[in-house]
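New to this. Please check this protein:
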Amino acid sequence: MQLNWRDFNEMSFNQLRKVPGIGKKAAERIIDNRPYRSNNDLFKIKGLGARTLAKLGIEKVKKERKSWYLMEDGIEYPDFSLAKNILTGKIDFFWRIPKDKREYLVK
């Protein structure tokens, strides 16, 4: 059986009960927590385990890590917190560079 988050938004209580691995309490929680916007939302429902969802063809999608920049101090910082100084060409935290002299790395 292949389901996705849209199906869980539309199914009635009786339809949910017919799905293998979903009991009475889990069906009630599914209905109470609507609407769902992605398959990852279904993993937050108590009583609805990862194995049950995997059998239904639903897998958790990992979020991609945002862009990070390795600074001279050896620590990685998110790109949105950094800017390039137009005059020196040096990359630093944007708040340390005057507004008229900064060029943002992320637009």
Observations:
- Residues 40 and 60 are 5 Å apart (CA to CA).
- The chain has two domains: 5-55, 68-104.
- The chain has five helices and five strands.
